Amino acid sequence: MSDSKQEPATEAQGSTDGSIHLDSVEKVYDPDGEHVVAVEDITMHIEPGEFVTVLGPSGCGKSTLLDCIAGFIEPTGGNIYVDGEIINGPSADRGVVFQENRLLPWKTIEENVNIGPKMRGDVETGRASQLLDRMGLDGTETQYPSELSGGMQQRAEIARLLANDPAIMLMDEPFSALDALTKEMLQEMLLEVWAEDNRTVLFITHDVEEALFLADRVLVMTAGPGRIKEIVDVDIERPRELSVMTTDHFTDLKDHVLHLIHEEAREAME
Amino acid sequence: MSAGQTVGDYLAAVGEHLETIPRPPRYVLKGLSIVGFLAVWWLLVELGVLGFDLITTPLEAVVALSGFVMGEPLTNGGESLYVHSYYTLYRVGIGTGMAVALGVPLGLLVGWSDWWDSYVGPALELLRPIPPVAWVPIALVAFSNDLLSIVWVVFIGAFFPILINTSEGVRQIESDYIKAVQSLGGDSWHLFRHVIIPAMIPSMATGIMIGIGIGWIAVVAAEMISGDFGIGYITYQAYRLMQTETVVVGIIILGTYGAVSSFAVAKLGEKLTPWTDGA
């Protein structure tokens, strides 16, 4: 269990910018003397308010990277800076949305959304309802997570994260378990929320189209050990609609990224 | 039957007719099952299968039971059903209460902390396989007091299921729930309150139900071997005095208490876990 050596950073009232700087980040696991390198040599700077997606095959360490940035695990090499300071454990300022829905099953939706403020002793009446409304979930306050559909659960998880007003949103394949239609709806919703709040977003996915549609930049990773293959600029204008995925420019980018991934796969087989 | 009808045709007609009769409601079928059980019991006694002719019939048992409920002494010159029940319930209550008070916190520690699991776990594992009833003789010697030794046996019987189920309940907590609360700004205390406790309640409740069940077994055995009051004790005394109707009544009473206590714990478990309705 990862220990916060300081008070959990709960002053998340928009007072920080949300820049992320990764400096030669490396994570090595050593179970029974087997030196397993999950990620290595990750160096990248993310500006405040940027939307960056991390794309790569299974096993490329993208979840490990997110765990490091979230503060759940410590890198074995290099440093992670947020707003110029080395991070030290999880923080309410770096909210996380998980792939499998992780709303607390024993709390109602409203209690779930309020949990961050509640732990700070700072619950505003009506704020949970406001956030749920924003995510299209009005009326679900007194329901339990198990009563909601997958898409609704993920939206509620986003609402819960937003209740802490974090500068950074870390999302680990949040839509990959959803059907295509729900996925598209949530992608558009996420972009809306991001455009309004302008938080820094780091979004992990294995879906090339999703990665390109959402991001300002796509961090393409290799597999075993996880490394940066290339950082692809997505210079498509915003606001973006789903129809953008059929444009030539988008298709070119997609081809380029697929080429990168296939190159990697070929090398891996040799 | 007319001359041309075959037996087969007749049976087929009967079968078709039966199918049109609506099926009786569930509770009727369940009631039939119980009636069937009583009928078999009565039959075994009437026919004198093996030694069954010495056992009372269901009717005799009910008559005896109603007598005792009215306050008759359970054995000649002895105490009533209520006095004996008091002793037994008292012992089970204290023993199981202690088992919960010790087993739940220890379960939390062993489930959560590697240190406790490594250093305290093995010692507990040594004691766990001992059948609770086997403790009775040594308890009688070590505690030299009937109440203490009986309570000890109940305690040791109920303790281990509670400990094991609680610790498993903690171990099985999805680590992502912990991460979620941490990333929302929670410290260890928050984790404990918002994740660990709610998550382990179902397992703990199961452990307590099992623990109470074993506690009942333990108290009856302990009372039969020692003691001078209690339903277990008097059941055994009645056996030695060949008062079989009292023996049968003893079984019925113990069964009833066991069922009620299990049911109570189950209900309590349901109340504490409102999120599991029809999930």
Chart the SSEs and their pairings.
The complex is a heterodimer of chains A (270) and B (279).
Chain A: E1 20-29, E2 36-46, E3 51-55, H1 62-70, E4 77-82, E5 85-86, E6 94-97, H2 109-120, H3 127-134, H4 150-162, E7 168-172, H5 180-197, E8 200-205, H6 208-214, E9 217-221, E10 228-233, H7 248-269
Parallel strand pairs in A: 3-8, 3-9, 6-7, 7-8
Antiparallel strand pairs in A: 1-2, 1-4, 4-5, 9-10
Helix pairs in contact in A: 2-3, 2-4, 3-4, 6-7
Chain B: H1 7-20, H2 26-47, H3 58-69, H4 81-112, H5 114-119, H6 121-127, H7 135-143, H8 146-171, H9 175-183, H10 188-225, H11 231-240, H12 244-272
Helix pairs in contact in B: 3-12, 4-8, 4-10, 4-11, 7-8, 8-10, 9-10, 10-11, 10-12, 11-12
Q: Termini distance of chain B?
A: 57 Å
Query: Level of helix content of chain B?
Result: over 70%
* Residue windows where pLDDT falls under 50 for at least 5 positions of chain B: none
Mean of residue pLDDT values of chain B: 87
Overall shape of chain A: it is globular
- Count of β-strands of chain B: 0
**What low-confidence regions of chain A span 5 or more consecutive residues with pLDDT below 50?**
1-15
Question: Helix-strand pattern of chain B, N to C?
Answer: HHHHHHHHHHHH
The tally of strands of chain A reads: 10
Topology pattern of chain A, helix = H, strand = E: EEEHEEEHHHEHEHEEH
- General form of chain B: flat
Spatial order of the strands in the main sheet of chain A? 6-7-8-3-9-10
Major sheet size, sense and barrel closure of chain B:
none
- Percent strand of chain A equals 15-25%
Oligomer designation:
heterodimer
Largest interface: A-B, 37 and 22 residues
What percentage of the residues of chain B does DSSP assign to strands (E)?
under 5%
Keywords:
heterodimer, A: 270 residues, alpha/beta, four-stranded antiparallel β-sheet, 7 helices, 10 strands, globular, disordered N terminus, B: 279 residues, mainly alpha, 12 helices
